[in-house]
User: Fold this.
Amino acid sequence: MRLKNQVVIITGASRGLGQAMALLFGKEGAHIIAASRTSSEIEHTAEQIRDHGGSALAIPTDITDLAQVSDLFRRVEEDYGKIDILINNAGIGLFGSVEELTPEALDQMLAVNVKGTVYCCQAAFKRMKEARSGHIINILSTASKVGRANESGYTASKWAQAGFTESLKAEAKPFGIRVTSFCPGGMNTPFWQTPENQAHQQQAEQFMNPQAIAELLLHIATFPAAINIDDIVVKRM
Assistant:
């Protein structure tokens, strides 16, 4: 088992890529902490891991709430005594023209994609710094590399998330903490199955399989501690 006894926190673990990672990493021996706002869905993810002989804990968490994030990491520390890997996977995208971008939509994307990532990284960094080891993987997007029409708010949030991650890399390196920017293109996940994103649903059927992306992330997470995958972009053919 490639992740035996590794403690792995995955946000947005209730569905899509987050769930695929949780199930796969659990099979590789990791203790999975599945975090998401939807308690029933992350408990289902955790149950699937335990049904296959793995170790998993579901902790309902709204990552935009600093108090809930603090409680998440406190509970993990109390139960496991360490954090080996944090994967910031939770994210939201609301699309439309610049003129249609509402303050509410912008606030929501900045809160989840930026503040949520910052809060989780702060909590993990504090503990990994003391241990002088650990790996933080921030799931960004190809939108953190290039702007597209009808994605202005989402792109702004992802560029901010990417900028934060670059600074985190510089601060983390002296303490032996690895930080990876992982930038996938579109995946066929429930991310698109919202009323706001109906225009993308048919196109999503042609997007990448989240299971294949989870396999790649597992490979990255199991590299030797002396090697860091700094930045990776994954696109469909």
